[in-house]
Amino acid sequence: MAPYFYIDESGREDRTGPFLFPIARVVPSTAGVARAAMEQLLAGPSPAELQSVPAISTTMPSGVRLLGLTINEDIATVDLSSEFGATDDSATVAQRAAQVVFTLSRFDSVAEVLFRQEGEPVSIQTGDGSVVSRPVGIWDYLEFVAAISVETPVYGGTAGNPLRVTGFGAVFEASFQYALTNDDGLIIAEGIAMTDNGTGWGGFDFTIPYQADRRQVGALIVWANSANDGSQIDIREYPVGLTP
To answer: CATH for 148-242?
Structure first.
């Protein structure tokens, strides 16, 4: 499973971070995987993650408890304790909501999330500052993701061989670059990938064949070339476990 936290990366001048991303978590086998993912989200980053470079953080206030979670007809209804602060007049409420929505939307059974607080229906802020009482989806919070957002492999997860890369992005002419490096920082694969939409957000799904002589931690790096001067922008680097 992979709860979503924020990583302190700057993106570019007109799209600044920190950005949402899924981070690998391993928990004992359970039938309630969505609940377990929410509990991992509320537990927050580990001490090592908080001290990492770039920094990993959460906008969840301390003490937030999961009071209930049901999934019906693609809608997850999540009930959180009052510490969540859904009615607070704060821009961080939208960031908190985004973490919940993205975490639950990784499951095929969830397309939207409806929020409750202490058992009562509440309105929730979206990424553009609107306050709505309807179920919300990831499209309501695209302000908080990078222009090239890798969904798999998850940050710090283990990759297959070949490495399948999925996600979504909004890049000039639907094109971006990637490189895969080994634990020595040497490039072992590189190329160009495309989203399925050249005028806005589009998905991508491609595979990277690579050679690794042993299990090791490498990195997947993605970036776009600026339409203005060709410089590298929207650079993101994801640690990933490589397998022979």
So the answer is: 2.60.40.2550
